[in-house]
Amino acid sequence: MPNNEFGDFQTPLALAEQCLRVVGLPDDARVLEPTCGVGSFLHASAVLQPGTERVGLEIQPEYAEQASKWARVSVGNIFLSDLATDVEWQTNGPLRVVGNPPWVTSAELNRMDSKNLPPKENFKGAKGFDALLGGSNFDVCEYIILKCLGDLRKEALQLAMLCKTQVARNVIEHAAAAKLPIASASVYRIDAKRWFDAAVDACLFVVTADPSNTPDYTVNVFEDVFAPDAEPTSRFGVVDGRLVSDVDGYLAVREADGVSSLVWRSGLKHDASKVFELDATPAPTTAQGVVLDVESEYVFPLLKCTDIFRGKHRALRKWVLVPQKTFGADTSHLAMVAPKLWDYLSANAEALDGRKSSIYRNRPRFSVFGHGDYTYAPFKVAVSGLHKEAIFRLVAPIQDQPVVLDDTCYFLPFEDGTEAAVVAAQLNSAEARLFIESLVFWDSKRPITKKLLARIDLSKLPTDPDAILRDSQATAVEAGVEFDVERALALVQDRVAEQEALMLF
Ligand SMILES: C[S@@+](CC[C@H](N)C(=O)[O-])C[C@H]1O[C@@H](n2cnc3c(N)ncnc32)[C@H](O)[C@@H]1O
């Protein structure tokens, strides 16, 4: 995929034709392609239905020139156009908005110093859009699809655009927040590697918008754009104002969707693994094979997401240096109180001072990020953010030291090992699994997020007390944690009482 500011890769005609076959193009349709490039979709429309009225818009004049073989094409910038008023139609058939908007993110464009971005004032006060632009990074494709639906919100139309599957999800979430008149939607997966040499999950996103219908923000998922008659394999969308990956599965466990009373934490981030992370041989050893002699209160056992996922949570493979107790705490006094650590960090100052992330800017020297009192809690229930299955592990101290987790993990901190075992058992229960499955998008880069975990309200999750008691004991044994049966029983009974009380309301 070319990495340029126009997200410029043209759709092969065969794919454009198939996309239009899937949605069915009426012979009197008005076809609009808002970032038409050389006009693959306009060409395909002309082939399939020559009687259609076709209009294109494209920022690069030489492309617009080529596309004008198939349609009336203007050279223009979608970000500065109003699709409701700037397009002049000569017919009044059903409206189809089609194409393949640029697959670039605002962060990529900023890095390229590109100005090909929507002006910020476009978003002021526009519900749904402000949330989109509020984030530090957004997908331009997502913005363009939302802009098409927003500009043309007063008309009935069908939109059919190629995009990353993640973009389709975000659009549905924002469309629901902005109350855009979406009547139905589907995604048909495409093989992006084959068509665009892009290693992403992508799809044809089809949205029917109709202001006269009750909105529906759920999306049927079809596995292959070339097999559109197969049954949909799942349905994601916005239910009760929140995005879920499996609408039907979610409806069965929706009562557990709330606010976790336990605060989920991310692990430690430091952006300098060669300096902060040390091999456990078992003594802390640098990448150069030198055993490091520094003040022990700054050295902790380290576990990463793969250790958690693979059940290696009792193994000592790495140590990590944590030079501050909390984020932002002063470090200059280390020269006095921990001179050996200070000397080591100073010897590596070039790598540490050169860390690019803005979180270290104007912070005490040698800062790390994402830590606080919770980092030093003796027991943790941890999960990998990156793997394709949510397995919660009870993590106990290693060599009498609290374990530090890295930033590929999420965790809950505990002082009490039995309580941690009970919570781990609940999070690994069949009921929790069902709930997570209904929310998670496994094809995301980081499927398990803090936002998702924070939605699991354990007090409302159906609980089988015998199973939890049995599994928490097994979890404690596996983690090498002393288990207090009486205490576990009391905790499980409290949980059941909470749920019974809820059922009375
Ligand atoms: C992914 S290509 C797709 C082209 C065509 N739709 C197709 O499917 O073959 C994206 C196109 O958007 C055009 N583009 C990028 N930014 C634009 C903007 N601000 N306004 C209009 N067109 C733009 C690019 O020049 C490029 O031709």
Automatic annotation (TrEMBL):
Would I find S-adenosyl-L-methionine among this entry's keywords? Answer: yes
Query: Which superkingdom does the taxonomy of this entry point to?
Result: Bacteria
Sorted keywords for this record are:
Methyltransferase, S-adenosyl-L-methionine, Transferase
Q: PANTHER family attached here?
A: DNA METHYLASE (MODIFICATION METHYLASE) (METHYLTRANSFERASE)-RELATED, DNA METHYLTRANSFERASE YEEA-RELATED
Q: What is the official name of this protein in its record?
A: SAM-dependent methyltransferase
Give the source species: Microbacterium croceum
User: What does the organism's lineage look like at the top?
Assistant: Bacteria, Bacillati, Actinomycetota, Actinomycetes, Micrococcales
